[in-house]
Design brief:
This protein is an alpha/beta fold. The chain has a single domain (9-289), classed as Alpha-Beta Barrel (TIM Barrel), CATH 3.20.20.410. 35% of the residues lie in helices and 14% in strands. It has eleven helices and nine strands. The protein has helices at 21-27, 61-65, 76-79, 84-93, 106-111, 118-128, 151-160, 175-178, 180-192, 229-247, 264-279; strands at residues 37-42, 71-74, 99-102, 138-141, 167-170, 196-197, 199-201, 217-224, 251-258. It has a six-stranded parallel β-sheet with strand order 3-2-1-9-8-7. Strands 4-5-6 form a three-stranded parallel β-sheet, with helices on one face. The chain is globular. Pfam families: DUF72. This is DUF72 domain-containing protein. InterPro entries: DUF72, UPF0759_sf.
Length: 297
Amino acid sequence: MKFGKVAQPELVNFTLPETHPKTIELLNCFEETATPNVFVGCAKWNKADLKGFYPRGTKDELDYYSRQFNSIELNATFYRQFTAEQFEKWKAKTPKDFKFFPKLGQEISHWKRLQGVQDAVNIYLDSAAHLQEKLGTIFLQLHANFGNKNFDRLQNFVLSWPKGIPLAIEVRHPDWFEDTVVFNEFTQLFEEHNIANIIVDTAGRRDMMHMRLTNNEAFVRYVGANHSSDYTRLDEWVARLKEWNDLGLKNIHFFIHQNLEVESPLLAGYFIKKLNPALGINLKIPNEENSQQMTLL
């Protein structure tokens, strides 16, 4: 994931912003939950990107990946439409508590830009539904040039989205964040319709660290910079998620990217190891038995 990449990450102030007041207000409406639902994963499972993660001789990458992590941010569905049969195969290969968090296709978000997309959305959902109980939150990533002048399109999309199917949305254009009125307008829309407002932690776009949750789900896309600061940044996230959990956050979906994806499993393992005691959970630490094989570049 190259979005937000910078040449000198050591010059970036990675300190997490304070929790948005509206997030505190929202979470205070929920009962405190001692044990949240936590899903942590990478964006891909293929050997070409996750070099060193798979033991020698691994033949089925998804089978192995899904026994190390409990989820995947499924970016492959952005680039092409998969058949219902393919979703069924993925479902059959993975453990019962594994979840897929698939991205809506680029035809919907980038080519048609949310206009006249009902048929494409229905085809997508008909296929993805074959994941059944393993279908996590579907997410929409809008193009970086999709600004707030397109608010009506975004609103119509949200209003037409089928109720009962969890959805998260990532807006990228700076205009969504720079104008307080605009920011409040679209986040209120999300809150009213139970849409998760995705937080992106990447070096070059600190405005996307808005810390504004819009439902009882923290959907975080974390992009490391292949720098030592990646680990201290994750330490801060552990503390922040503990804070939100204490306020009433129930669902945590945290996906780790890297400019060089080979290190994503390393970061994820570190994150899980720190998150387990903080939240009183017991997620498997991925590839722990083979960790000596994985070294930082």
